């Protein structure tokens, strides 16, 4: 990625967002997870009856496989086409050569565009953002939104997936390089995710469950958190990309994976071992005893 033009970094994250949006739309089109709530007079209760899918699981995975193959072909074409060298940034090649000779570590103090402390701060932001968007929010999504009903749950899935590529593309329109603004946006993300965790902890008794405000806050918190996380990932990667030190973009990817790993390691025992979250019933409305 360092060899190509800087705009390719933003488009990479747009594609990363689309990789989640397309399967989500495909799953909703299939009708996966939809149920009909039917009252059973013999048991005097409402039971969830799964709705038959519009197409089979085989078709679903064939479409996903086709989508992955399209991405693979695009990646290969960027490297094997005769005109591929024209979209590479010649300045990046020069800076890569000089950087390889003068910088073999993560935090080189010779970079005049990005200081050592600024690089550490950006990598910390990357770790926090990826921990939340990849490790925390997906695991508590159903716990936080299902108490408000299937409609709110599906809106959270679709709108969050839609906000991902859109906010990544916003880095073209609203380029941000200030660390203070990044810190402010990261704080907003942490606040939104804290509210999401609070909603999940209250499941199956949703906060303001029977009101429009409660549903709006639930959907809004997911959209804001997902959108800002996607935006922050993109602008942080672009900022490190401009630092003229190739290793920093590499370490950005490493810390992204580290953040996702931390989020998964923390949330897995909380959900599967300690069972601190309770799933809301699909059909019946849970009330506080």
TrEMBL record:
GO terms for cellular component: plasma membrane. It catalyses: riboflavin(in) = riboflavin(out). The chain crosses the membrane at residues 55-78, 119-140, 152-174, 181-200, 212-236, 248-271. Pfam families: SLC52_ribofla_tr. Keywords: Cell membrane, Membrane, Transmembrane, Transmembrane helix, Transport. GO terms for molecular function: riboflavin transmembrane transporter activity. Belongs to the riboflavin transporter family. It comes from Trichinella nativa. Plasma membrane transporter mediating the uptake by cells of the water soluble vitamin B2/riboflavin that plays a key role in biochemical oxidation-reduction reactions of the carbohydrate, lipid, and amino acid metabolism. PANTHER family: RIBOFLAVIN TRANSPORTER, SOLUTE CARRIER FAMILY 52. InterPro entries: MFS_trans_sf, Riboflavin_transptr. It comes from the Eukaryota. This is Riboflavin transporter. It is a multi-pass membrane protein. It is found in: Cell membrane.
């Amino acid at each position: 990625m360092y060899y190509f033009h800087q705009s390719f970094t933003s488009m990479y994250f747009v594609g990363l967002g689309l990789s989640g949006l397309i399967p989500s739309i495909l799953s909703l089109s299939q009708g996966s997870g939809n149920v009909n709530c039917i009252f059973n007079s013999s048991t005097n209760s409402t039971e969830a009856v799964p709705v038959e899918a519009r197409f089979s699981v085989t078709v679903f995975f064939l479409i996903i496989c086709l989508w992955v193959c399209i991405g693979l072909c695009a990646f290969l074409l960027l490297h094997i086409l005769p005109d591929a060298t024209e979209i590479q940034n010649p300045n990046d090649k020069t800076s890569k050569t000089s950087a390889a000779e003068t910088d073999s570590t993560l935090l080189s103090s010779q970079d005049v565009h990005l200081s050592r402390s600024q690089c550490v701060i950006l990598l910390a932001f990357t770790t926090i953002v990826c921990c939340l968007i990849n490790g925390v929010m997906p695991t508590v999504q159903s716990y936080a939104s299902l108490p408000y009903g299937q409609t709110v749950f599906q809106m959270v899935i679709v709108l969050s997936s839609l906000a991902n590529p859109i906010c990544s593309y916003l880095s073209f329109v609203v380029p941000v390089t200030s660390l203070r603004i990044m810190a402010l946006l990261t704080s907003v993300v942490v606040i939104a995710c804290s509210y999401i965790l609070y909603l999940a902890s209250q499941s199956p008794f949703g906060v303001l469950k029977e009101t429009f405000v409660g549903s709006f806050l639930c959907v809004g918190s997911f959209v804001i958190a997902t959108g800002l996380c996607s935006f922050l990932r993109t602008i942080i990667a672009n900022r490190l990309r401009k630092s003229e030190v190739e290793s920093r973009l590499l370490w950005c990817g490493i810390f992204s994976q580290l953040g996702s790993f931390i989020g998964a390691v923390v949330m897995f025992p909380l959900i599967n071992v300690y069972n601190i979250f309770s799933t809301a019933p699909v059909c019946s409305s849970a009330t506080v005893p």
